[in-house]
Specification:
single chain, alpha/beta, Rossmann fold, six-stranded parallel sheet, 15 helices, 12 strands, 16% strand, globular
């Protein structure tokens, strides 16, 4: 049995990238293949406050506690066969802890965002200067294997190592299944699921959404960005994301939205929102940015939209054509099952762990 220590930033079963990559793959592996020791950097309480504005003194205290805990994780981690490092060992400062981990154990370094750009949430801008985005290249160079979520990230990582493997973000297609049969909602339920940090992407298409809500009997349901609203419209509801209700919340959508700006950060994203909608049988409309152009074939398993007029037309097209909705939902689910299922990719993850464990620092 392979002994694996996972150094992850977030509490278990809370952050999408961590949940649908390393945590999910481990859960889908045979029971006798891996003994996993998952060590989150932030406690549930600290994670809940991480993206809240203010709370500076409290955040400093929690961050220092997290640093102490992470130092212990690296120095006193026992003798695992391999260490999996998701994103980074610690978000601030140079890669000292990562360097120590790579000197002691074979490390599999996994990331699914363009973290080398040093993006910082608006709630934590005051500490952005403490980030060292250049450390990503150094971690890649020292890792036994680097796994990334798409070819765009692979192109960056391959500049610093020839030990790079693409493992797309996936979903457990046994757990994430459509409702059967889907209910016909009146008014139409247009949905978006995300986080406070990505709520700005939805806000960017507010003019299109306002036009739709004025012309179509519909509601906009926003999950994960509480407080989101459209001035002058009472057809918008928003609430916090909850793990316990995630499946039912998204299954209730008639249409799922994934707007993105066409920038370097977005081109590094792995299309999770689109995959979530598609797995649950919800027809998806997404910006044709980055991996979205690989996941969605326009008119076959979803729709693309870039401009305000395109977003309006795409939403209204689905609103007036139930047969199109049904066909896109069926083909979208098929795409996830065949190409982006955790069941397909978890064995490849295990192969990567075994390959890394065969190398010693």
């Amino acid at each position: 049995m392979l002994r694996v220590t996972l150094l992850v930033p977030y509490p278990v079963d809370r952050s999408p990238g961590q949940r649908f990559r390393v945590e999910q793959w481990l859960r889908l592996l045979p029971d006798d293949s891996v003994r996993a020791d998952i060590r989150p950097l932030f406690s549930p309480q600290a994670f809940a406050e991480l993206y809240e504005p203010g709370l500076t003194v409290r955040k400093v205290g929690r961050t220092l506690s997290a640093l102490t805990r992470r130092m212990h994780d690296v120095v006193a981690s026992g003798k695992p066969d391999v260490v999996v490092l998701y994103r980074e060992a610690f978000p601030l400062g140079p890669p000292v802890l990562e360097w120590l981990a790579e000197r002691r154990h074979p490390v599999v370094f996994d990331f699914d965002d363009a973290i080398y750009l040093g993006d910082t949430s608006s709630a934590n801008r005051r500490v952005a200067f403490l980030k060292a985005p250049g450390k990503t290249a150094r971690i890649i160079a020292g890792a036994a294997v680097t796994t990334v979520g798409n070819e765009h990230l692979s192109a960056y990582a391959s500049q610093h190592s020839d030990r790079v493997v693409v493992l797309p973000t996936t979903l457990d297609v046994e757990e994430y299944q459509p409702s059967a049969p889907r209910a016909a909602n009146n008014p139409l339920r247009i949905g978006w699921s995300g986080s406070p940090t990505t709520g700005a992407h939805l806000a960017a298409i507010t003019p299109a959404l306002r036009r739709v809500l004025e012309r179509v009997p519909a509601r906009l349901e926003v999950i994960g960005a509480p407080g989101f609203s459209i001035a002058g419209s009472d057809a918008v509801t928003s609430r916090a994301w909850r793990r316990e209700t995630e499946l039912d919340d998204v299954r209730g959508f008639d249409i799922g939205l994934m707007p993105l700006p066409d920038d370097e950060w977005s081109r590094g994203k792995c299309g999770f929102k689109a995959l979530l909608y598609m797995a649950l049988g919800v027809p998806a409309i997404a910006s044709p940015v980055g991996v979205n152009t690989e996941i969605i074939e326009h008119g076959v398993n979803g729709l693309h939209a870039s401009t305000e007029d395109e977003w309006v037309e795409a939403i209204e097209q689905l609103a007036r054509d139930p047969e199109l909705c049904s066909r896109l939902a069926t083909e979208g689910r098929k795409t996830v099952v065949e190409r982006y299922s955790g069941q397909r990719w978890a064995p490849r993850f295990l192969e990567v762990l075994e390959e890394a464990a065969a190398t010693r620092p």
